[in-house]
Amino acid sequence: MESMNHELTECIINRAIGVFDSGIGGITVLKELIRKFPFENFIYLGDTARLPYGSKSPDTVRQYSLQNMDFLISRNVKAIVVACNTASTQIFETDYKNTPIYNVIDPGAKKAALATENKKIAVLATRATVAAGSYTLKIKLHLPDAEVFSQACPLFVPLAEEGWHDDPITNLIAFRYLQNLKSLDIDTAVLGCTHYPLLKSAIAKVFGNHVALIDSGEALAEELAIDFERSRMPQKTLFEHGSLTLCLTDAGQQFENLSLNLLSEVISIQPQFETVSVI
Amino acid sequence: MESMNHELTECIINRAIGVFDSGIGGITVLKELIRKFPFENFIYLGDTARLPYGSKSPDTVRQYSLQNMDFLISRNVKAIVVACNTASTQIFETDYKNTPIYNVIDPGAKKAALATENKKIAVLATRATVAAGSYTLKIKLHLPDAEVFSQACPLFVPLAEEGWHDDPITNLIAFRYLQNLKSLDIDTAVLGCTHYPLLKSAIAKVFGNHVALIDSGEALAEELAIDFERSRMPQKTLFEHGSLTLCLTDAGQQFENLSLNLLSEVISIQPQFETVSVI
B57 to chain A: which residues are within 8 Å by CB? Predict the structure, then answer.
């Protein structure tokens, strides 16, 4: 019996961790996960045929997210990371078809609540994530008297995708979106969209160094590490580098190049690209 | 027999003209059509659940466009206007399931070829439309020795949707995208994406008044008027205002407000909104 359990655990250990996002943004989360767990296997799904999610309705975002989760489960993953903030607002499950589900909002909210001193927190996100109000709700679970100010920044995603990361135009747009928050004396700001860490320097220029910028992807990787340590999730510890498969619902050279570029710091292997259908 | 033909024509006349776009951009085309044909009935389909098309692959854009056309045919339209430049690059049919198809690229290209004096034409469009090369091809059909310079302007769509139409930041971004074209001495520029007419003033500021800006939606409405006159397409001439149904694949208050705002100059009736599925 013990031997069977051992074999079962061995079998789960070698299964990949599934990560999905509406497109390329989740690669910033994947990068943190690979950095922290270099021996794990990963399957990343980018729903490039239907991106972005940030401007779509709650029902549509939930429907697309469940289809993505079903796809990853069909690939036999041992856990699913919802690496898209907008999708995370519509996935309330922590377990789906016997697979543990991790979203980016819970760890981001928790880290922000721990980081703030004056209890004034800004949340920068897509229109859909702001409208869902999930960050405010989750931050207040940890810190009931926190003041949370949300700001939708719809141009940040296309600016990040255009590659204008450290750019005077991006600085101007960041200033326009964020100047009101600055005057509200916040000391912590959540980067509540996976694209936003790419614009960290422009955001930091507006807020100044005394405002802590919380990267939800980083926070999620830290949370997952704690779960691994507590053995809730069997971790692969063999001394070999893991494999990486990048699945896209719409083929695109631009996406492939951008993701290789973003991952270059953390991978030495060539990931395998696949075009897939999730409906 | 003559009476039967007459009845048949009567019946076709009362059918609506179908117009589709990936989202809100095509409303600028619809507006030109309503202005020119105030007595017609229109059904507009905005594929808001999957927008935008401009960053997606040719195969995906064609698949989505055919699904949109099938939906409009199921609504018994008498003609279909492909009011999205990116979709127009992948729809080569002029007739589909016995329904005439009009795209925005053919009339835009023709009008640009007629407007230029020095035969130097710029095409401003999405990445996908530029990559397809359709404008260059179609302009050269009319003017074989034209020099055509294409420029993708990926931030124009989100700027238009953010409502920053006449704005210093939009002027700066327009300057960055267009300064090279300006130095190439073009005298005509095609607004090769249905969102771009909303940024006309920023674009004109960069090019100056001597560059003719061609609005493909306007050109299409002119082309359709010629077809009506030649009776290729039965026109409704009864003295009553037509009806307007706006179908969206993803419900959204923001889209409804924006389209009402854009159409306010040309409609006095309240359009009917429907959320529909096209797959």
Answer: 250-252
Q: CB–CB of B155 and A154 under 8 A?
A: no
C-beta of residue B269 within 8 angstroms of C-beta of residue B241: yes
Give A48's contacts in chain B (Cβ within 8 Å).
Answer: 56
- Residue B84 annotated among the catalytic residues of the structure: yes
Nearest residue on chain B to A173, judged by CA atoms? B169
Strand runs (DSSP E) across chain B, as ranges? 17-21, 42-46, 79-82, 95-96, 99-103, 120-125, 147-152, 188-191, 212-215, 244-248, 272-275
Residues of B in contact with A56 (CB under 8 A): 48-49, 250, 252
| Minimum-distance CB partner of B50 among A50, A59, A173 | A50
Q: Which of B48, B53, B60 to mutate to test the interface with A (most CBs of A within 10 A)?
A: B60
Show the tokens assigned to B156.
């124009």
**A50 within 8 A of A20, measured Cβ to Cβ:** no
Q: pLDDT tens digits, residue range A119-159?
A: 999 999 999 999 999 999 999 999 999 999 999 999 999 99
Domain boundaries, chain B: 2-103+219-275, 106-216
Tell me which of 2.60.40.10, 3.40.640.10, 3.40.50.620, 3.40.50.1860 is the CATH number of domain A106-216: 3.40.50.1860
Is A193 an active-site residue? yes
Query: pLDDT band for position A10 (50/70/90)?
Result: low
Contact call for residues B32 and B218 (beta carbons, < 8 A): yes
Tell me which DSSP letter residue B198 carries: G
Q: Which helix (H) or strand (E) holds A45?
A: strand A42-46
- Across the range A202-221, mean pLDDT stands at 96
pLDDT of A6 above 70: no
Q: Which residues of B touch A177 (CB under 8 A)?
A: none
pTM across the whole model: 0.91
Cβ–Cβ of B172/A169 closer than 8 Å? Answer: yes
B56:A173 CB<8 A: no
Q: Which tokens belong to B274?
A: 């429907």
Decide: A44 and A22 in contact? Cβ < 8 Å.
no
Interface ipTM: 0.89
For residue A25, pLDDT over 60 is answered with yes
Question: Which architecture characterizes domain B2-103+219-275 according to CATH?
Answer: 3-Layer(aba) Sandwich (3.40)
User: pLDDT for B125-134, tens place per residue?
Assistant: 999 999 999 9
Residue B264 corresponds to which amino acid? S
Q: So what's the pLDDT on residue B13?
A: 80
> Mean pLDDT, chain B, as a whole number?
92
Q: Give the torsion sign (CA, B49, B55, B57, B61).
A: positive
| Nearest residue, CB atoms, A172 vs list B55, B158, B169 | B169
Structure confidence at residue B48 as a pLDDT band (50, 70, 90): very high
